[in-house]
Design brief:
Length: about 190
């Protein structure tokens, strides 16, 4: 049986074929990570709002959600710490969407997700599904500080209208802004 999650084994790296990962595969891996993060954060939303709040869309790197609100939920400023403070955005055809303010708890969840998986395995679950691995010149990342730094700079890459990601499309090594800063490269392995 073929495994769904493909963990990179650094002990057998000489036997493993590596090629620089395409931006397309990296974006798909990020969206898969967004699905996992959405599931985790939905548990938080549903728990703290007594089932009256849940997300319908998630940003894979920055904890920003489009929310669905059931009748009876009141968005209060004190709910900001867990992501329950929302602002509304009326659409031209009558629908109103709700967007949560990024909250400290959600930033912590995202930070832990990316740090634990990057420092522990050099792969997030999305990267495992796509057979991608983050490597530095010395091999897999095993340092939590570097993993946090990489995540923080990846948010900056996205926050600048994706310029840090688009930059990689023009380079032969496919290094994004946060890869350049952290001296890492994302590879696809077989």
């Amino acid at each position: 049986m073929i495994p769904i999650f493909h963990r990179y084994d650094s002990k057998h790296r000489k036997e493993t074929s590596l090629k620089t990962a395409s931006i397309r595969d990296r974006v798909i891996a990020q969206f898969i990570d967004g699905i996992f993060l959405s599931l985790i954060c939905n548990v938080i939303f549903i728990s703290f709002s007594s089932g009256k709040l849940y997300s319908v869309w998630v940003s894979p790197i920055i904890p920003q959600f489009i929310m669905e609100v059931k009748p009876g939920y009141v968005s209060l400023p004190r709910n900001t710490w867990w992501g329950g403070n929302l602002f509304s955005l009326p659409l031209p055809y009558g629908k109103v969407i709700f967007i949560n303010y990024p909250s400290p708890l959600l930033f912590l969840v995202y930070g832990l997700y990316y740090t634990i998986f990057t420092a522990g395995f050099s792969q997030t679950p999305g990267k495992m599904l796509k057979k991608l691995v983050i490597l530095s010149k010395g091999g897999p990342i095993r340092d939590a500080r570097r993993a946090v730094k990489r995540w923080l700079f990846s948010m900056l890459s996205i926050a600048l209208f994706g310029a840090g990601i688009c930059w990689a499309g023009k380079k032969s090594d496919k290094q994004t802004f946060h890869d350049k800063v952290c001296k890492t490269t994302v590879y696809q392995f077989k």
